[in-house]
Amino acid sequence: MPVSVSVIPELNVVHIVYWGRLTIQDLIDETIKRHQNPAFQVGMPGVNDLTQVTEIDIGFDEMLTYTKQALETYREVTTPIQLCLVGDTKATAAAVAMYENLSAATNAPFHLHIVQGYPEVLAVLNLPPDSLKHFPEFCHRESHLL
Questions:
Q1: How many whole angstroms separate alpha carbon 91 and alpha carbon 22?
Q2: Mean of pLDDT values over 27-43
């Protein structure tokens, strides 16, 4: 599975990293893995790193079904979940736009932030600059901007 899920309890953030070719099954597996993590709390902010994705093979109908399932999963959330999508690249742009539009159209409880790097993640989530140390080393590429 081209995805890793980790909860960063010090920041109350779930960090998800995708790589390679991404399919709808990978998103479903990631959701299951996230909810099975005992440190995960429904409603915690998420950082989804797409910088290493080379291809997204997800059709509109699949994404619509996935978005509707997310809406059902988070139906009791009263405050929008802050979700940063890192790495809007040529490989991910169409899928990111599709997810963003479908989330808005279905009133999914997410406030999506499309960002290019981790300095923006920290700013969006209102985390101090030293929070970067809790993320994997490859996330520190732009640490000079903090």
A1: 10
A2: 92
47/15 Cα distance (integer angstroms): 5
Query: How much is the pLDDT for 38?
Result: 94
Cα separation, 130 vs 116, whole angstroms: 19
CB atoms within 10 A of CB 85: 22
Domains of the chain: 3-145 (3.30.750.24)
91-142: pLDDT as tens digits: 888 888 888 888 888 888 888 999 989 999 999 999 999 999 999 998 888 7
What sign has the CA pseudo-torsion 84, 67, 64, 32? positive
Q: Which among 10, 7, 55 is positioned nearest to 33, based on CA atoms?
A: 7
> Is the Cβ–Cβ distance between 58 and 27 less than 8 Å?
yes
Q: What is the mean pLDDT of the chain?
A: 89
Q: Are 58 and 18 in contact (CB under 8 A)?
A: no
Both tokens assigned to 86? 């890192």
Could you tell me which of 105, 115, 39 has the C-alpha nearest to residue 83? 115
